[in-house]
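Same chain as my last thread, 292 residues:
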Amino acid sequence: MHNRRKFLYNSLSVAAGTVILPSTLRAAPNKKWTVGEIIDLFLKEINGAPFSQTVDTLKSGSRDSEVTGIVTTMFATIPVIRKAIEAKANFIIAHEPTFYNHLDETEWLKDNEVYQYKAKLLKDNNITIWRNHDYIHSHKPDGVMDGVIERLGWQKYSRESDGYFEVPDRALKDLISECKEKLGVSNVRYIGDLNEKKKKVVLLPGAWGGRNQITAAGRINPDVLIVGELSEWETAEYVRDARAMGNKLSLIILGHADSEEPGSKYMADWIRKNIAGMKVVEIPAGNPLQFG
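reply #2:
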C-alpha cells in the first residue's frame, strides 16, 4: 500500500525519543485558530515536515476555516460526523481514510450514493477533515503506539522501539482477556493453545503488512504476535506453519480500528496541552464488524 507504513519500516531500527515544543510556539489563551494554524503547530514537532509525499491532506473543508471545536477519531464515519455537528465542532482529525481508499481518491466514487451523501453532509455543515496518519506515526514518540502502550499499561515492559515487550508470564487466554478489557475489544481472532504460557510479545497495532509482521516475528522470535489486521494468506499462514514445525508462536488479531483507537486520545491530549481553551473531544469510531 502506497507509503502506508514507510515510517514503520524504518522504525525497526530507530529508537523513540521525546520532542518538547518550545514555549514560544505554544498557543496563547483565547486565540482564534484556523485549521491550517493547528496543523502547522503539530507539524513543528515532526522531523522533516511537511513531507513531500503524504496522505495527510485535507479531505474536506479549508485550511482557512476558523475552528469552533475539534474531534479526534480513527475514522471520520458518518456517525462521527453527526456527533461532531452536535458538538458544534467543525474540525475532525482522523487517522485513517475518509473515502474508503488509502489515497482518498474520489473520482471513482463520483456516482456512488454513499460517497455523495457523506461529501454533502461535510459540505453542508462546513466540516473540515484532516488525516493525521504519517505525521502522528512519525512523531517522537509515535502517538498511536504511545497511546496503545499507555492504555495497556505496558510502559515498563518495553524492550525495543519496534513493539517488543516482555510481559509477566501468563496463559494466552489471559493475555487475550487483558487486551480485550484494556483496549475495549469485544472479540479477537487468534492462533494458538489458550493454555500456553506467554512472555515475549511483539505488538504491531494497525496495518503493518505481512512482510513486516513476519520479519519482526522472525527476528525477535516472540511467544505471541499481536496485530491490528493482516492479510489472511500472509501472516496467519506463517504462524500456522511455524506451529506445525514445533515453534509455539501464537497470533492475536485485535482489529484495525480497535488496535489504533488510543492514538485518538493521544492527539486529543496533545491539543489540550498545546492549544489553550480549545474544545476537543475524542469520539471512537468503533469496530464496524460484528461476529456471528
